[in-house]
Design a protein that fits this description.
This protein has helices at residues 5-20, 25-43, 64-67. It is mainly α.
Length: 70
Amino acid sequence: MMINPLLEAKYKVQRKLDEEARHNITEYAKNSHRIVIDVEEQYGVKFKYGLLQGGHSLICMESSQDAKPS
C-alpha cells in the first residue's frame, strides 16, 4: 500500500505523541496544546480552536500563561 510522505510524517508524530502520553487521550490533548502554544510563541502566530457543540465535555487545558516555563 502506497502512503503519501506527508501522511507518513503525520502518523509518525501522532505515534510519538501517543507514546509520550502513555496512551492517555487527556494527556495527548494537553501535550498537543502545549506544542501549539510553543509554536505560537516561536513563530509569532495565533491558532484558533473550533468550538465544541455537544459531545464529550471539554478537556481542561492549561491557559497560555500557565504553560510558559517559570
